[in-house]
């Protein structure tokens, strides 16, 4: 396995009264300083060959910097490993001694006396001597951080006693480390409860249960023996049918539509336009006939071709909670409610809509209808016969009126609805979005062409 440790260049230090020079070196792991110590001829004696001849030694003068070869760097790393091993042993003794004294000082050592050693951070100052704990670096690099606390107060990590190393630069840093260890021991005594105030495990659990309120819906019974396993039989299995509910289905459009007011109007599809189906088969779709009746009813209110129709009456075809929007270029307007919808519709009085394409589809529950209408529109200018030509796209959502549900909710009070139910399937508009695309229809300037006397033929498939 490749060793990721390296040795820095030596730095001369004061002799401190010694007769030989000394240098200071750093041990780095992946570029991070993990240890710093002094090198002299006592720490790193001269290296000799098999015959006893000196082949390398430190300089005799502090003015010269030593150069380390491969063998000499290996010897320096061995010194670092020995220092690391010694620090682990010292740290282990410091961590175990206080816990052992508490457990053996008198009485029984229970769960309240167990306490793991607090975590210490690396040196917080600046300078070369601020070394990060190499053991922490190795643990984070390997992804291992599991700690097992035994009943005797011994802390183990991956089968080995856990410890934490701090790089020591000189004797002053060693004293600083001893001060940190003393602070850690004091913190252990403060965090861990004393033996006299410790509770038995069973009393601790009862105290915790009584002091901490349970989450909503998870009340803890006063006696755990009151829980019966046979209560699980009341839960329906996947093979059992759930209890029936007499409430109306929430998937129906009519379940969230308010009762139609007395002046409501409807787009009605006659019963005769729904094709008959074989027994056991779903009913035929009403999307196409509903789209055909919508086009013949809705757009004729704008140009006056529908006998006796007023444009303000179009608001009566919307549900009480309907929404309508209009987009012209970059301008958008969204309104809700029949009053605001009527105001928005009146802005298009006299507009001629020439339908070019229609797409109709059932809703997901096969009750309502989605319609998309495209074509060319020509707006009116202040009562004159001129106007602006623009392409349009009109998206509509029709919802059915469920007569059975309305009867359960208080009966039908709308005369137009009674007449519509007598001849067919009534629908109302619940969502309406109209977009005028002024740049797609060619001429955008006012034109003065006469209005057609007769309505254009319907698109293919809607005749």
TrEMBL record:
Sequence ranges assigned to domain NTF2 in this UniProt record: 290-436
Renumbered residue ranges of the record's region Disordered: 1-20, 48-224, 235-254, 441-463
Gene3D superfamilies: 3.10.450.50
Ranges of Basic and acidic residues composition bias in the record: 70-81
Native source species: Discostella pseudostelligera
Organism domain of life: Eukaryota
Residues annotated as signal peptide: none
Name the UniProt record assigns to this protein: NTF2 domain-containing protein
Basic residues: compositionally biased ranges: 82-91
Compositional bias of kind Polar residues: 141-152, 195-210, 238-254
Alphabetical list of InterPro entries matching this protein: NTF2-like_dom_sf, Nuclear_transport_factor_2_euk
PROSITE patterns noted in UniProt: NTF2_DOMAIN
């Amino acid at each position: 396995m490749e060793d990721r440790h390296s040795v820095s260049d030596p730095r001369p230090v004061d002799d401190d009264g010694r007769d030989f020079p000394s240098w200071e070196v750093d041990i780095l792991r992946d570029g991070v300083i993990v240890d710093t110590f002094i090198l002299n001829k006592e720490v790193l004696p001269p290296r000799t060959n098999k015959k006893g001849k000196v082949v390398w030694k430190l300089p005799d003068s502090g003015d010269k910097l030593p150069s380390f070869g491969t063998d000499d760097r290996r010897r320096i790393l061995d010194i670092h490993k020995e220092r690391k091993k010694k620090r682990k042993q010292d740290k282990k003794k410091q961590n175990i001694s206080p816990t052992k004294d508490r457990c053996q000082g008198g009485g029984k050592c229970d769960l309240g006396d167990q306490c793991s050693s607090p975590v210490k951070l690396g040196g917080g100052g600046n300078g070369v001597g601020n070394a990060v704990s190499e053991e922490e670096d190795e643990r984070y690099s390997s992804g291992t951080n599991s700690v097992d606390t035994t009943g005797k107060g011994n802390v183990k990590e991956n089968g080995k006693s856990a410890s934490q190393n701090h790089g020591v630069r000189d004797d002053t840093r060693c004293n600083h480390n001893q001060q940190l260890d003393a602070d850690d021991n004091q913190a252990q005594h403060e965090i861990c409860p004393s033996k006299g105030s410790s509770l038995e495990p069973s009393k601790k659990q009862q105290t915790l249960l009584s002091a901490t309120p349970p989450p909503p819906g998870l009340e803890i019974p006063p006696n755990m023996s009151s829980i019966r396993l046979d209560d699980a039989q009341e839960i329906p299995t996947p093979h059992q049918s759930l209890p029936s509910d007499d409430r109306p289905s929430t998937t129906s459009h009519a379940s969230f539509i308010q009762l139609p007011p007395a002046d409501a109007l409807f787009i009605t599809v006659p019963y005769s336009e729904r094709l008959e189906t074989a027994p056991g088969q779903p009913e035929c779709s009403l999307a196409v006939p509903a789209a055909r009746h919508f086009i013949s009813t809705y757009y004729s209110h704008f140009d006056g071709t529908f006998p006796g129709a007023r444009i303000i009456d179009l608001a009566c075809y919307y549900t009480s909670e309907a929404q309508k929007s209009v987009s012209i270029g970059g301008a958008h307007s969204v309104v809700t409610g029949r009053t605001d919808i009527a105001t928005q519709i009146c802005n298009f009085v006299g507009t001629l809509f020439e339908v070019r394409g229609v797409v109709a589809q059932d809703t997901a529950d096969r009750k309502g209808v989605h319609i998309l209408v495209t074509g060319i529109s020509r707006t009116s200018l202040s009562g004159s016969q001129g106007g602006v030509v623009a392409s349009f796209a009109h998206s509509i959502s029709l919802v059915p009126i469920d007569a059975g549900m309305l009867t359960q909710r208080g009966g039908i009070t709308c005369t137009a609805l009674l007449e519509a139910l007598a001849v067919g399937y009534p629908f109302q508009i619940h969502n309406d979005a109209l977009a005028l695309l002024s740049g797609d229809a060619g001429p955008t300037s006012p034109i003065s062409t006469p209005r057609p006397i007769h309505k254009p033929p319907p698109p293919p498939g809607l005749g």
